[in-house]
Amino acid sequence: MATVYNRIAIFSGTSEGYELALFLKKSGNLDKADFYVATDYGETTFTDLENVNVIQGRLTEKDMVKVFSEKKYSLVIDSTHPYADIVTANIKAACDETEVEYIRLLRAEEPVPKGVTLVENIEEAARALDKMEGKFLLTTGAKELKKYSKIRDFSQRAVARVLPSHMSLDNCEEAGVQSKYIIGMQGPFTREMNIATMEQFGLDILVTKSTGRAGGFAEKTALAKEGYRVLVIGRPAQESGLSIEEVKERLGNL
User: Fold this and answer.
1) CA distance linking residue 96 with residue 254, whole number of Å
2) Hey, what long-range contacts does 109-116 have (CB within 8 A, 24 or more apart)?
3) Cα–Cα distance between 254 and 212 in angstroms, integer?
């Protein structure tokens, strides 16, 4: 017999979180879910949906344990970004402690095409960029920009494409990205848009994460066929979980 869920928590921060909200609205169960986002910008992604209960703010594992107990959730869905490994670990641990069922929503990973360089982490990407010549486009998020800042001639070579938020701008400034080299836009972007960006700023290299279809991964790695160098930072670890369609099937038991 399928488990029947009463109240649920959904940790968002990706397009999948919005898709789950839309699904719950259509099924008449939106009032049974609370959506957790870390930033003000994350909250704005739900603005075109009425009656979504969005809770904004970064939670520690201890905070989550308290919230899960007080709210009496019967299910927690982790639809955070594939690279948000610390947040995912905290959500899992809090669910274990409070004995709440945990589901990891997995964004499907797309294969890395030929002609693209795969690196293990940002530190390895930074070492590679330090040895390369030419300007580069960083599309790996604003929070970790500072990890690139020691690259040779960083301020002259680095262009950062980040979410259009005050926090992103602060991170860019702290890392040493020149204001004229900051692109504040919400993706995903088309192949043509990526090519236009590379041409506009005279870029030679693009750095991305393995963000899957929802993150416009194929459109970014397609630049390798256009003669650009592309570095892909691999996902932190292999995870087990459910696809977006499988999660929707579970939500049918609300």
Assistant:
1) 21
2) 109/82, 109/210, 109/212, 109/235, 110/210, 110/212, 110/213, 110/217, 110/218, 112/210, 112/221, 112/232, 113/221, 113/222, 113/224, 114/224, 115/224, 115/225, 115/230, 116/221, 116/224, 116/230, 116/231, 116/232
3) 29
Three-state DSSP class for residue 206: strand
Quick check: helix, strand or coil at residue 11? strand
> What are the structure tokens assigned to 248, written together?
């929707």
pTM of the model as a whole: 0.81
Peptide bond into 188 cis (omega under 30): yes
d(CA 63, CA 94): 9
State how beta strands 8-11 and 158-162 pair: unpaired
Are the beta carbons of 160 and 181 closer than 8 angstroms? yes
pLDDT truncated to tens, each residue of the chain (254 aa)?
467 678 999 999 778 899 999 999 999 999 999 999 988 777 888 888 889 999 999 999 999 999 999 999 999 999 998 888 899 999 999 999 999 999 999 887 788 888 999 999 999 999 999 999 999 999 999 999 999 999 999 999 999 999 998 999 999 999 999 999 999 998 899 999 999 999 999 999 999 998 888 789 999 999 999 999 999 998 877 778 999 999 999 998 77
Q: Are strands 158-162 and 136-138 parallel, antiparallel or unpaired?
A: parallel
In terms of Cα–Cα distance, which of 11, 15, 26 is closest to 75? 11
- Report the distance separating Cα 183 and Cα 161, nearest Å: 5
The amino acid occupying position 155 is S
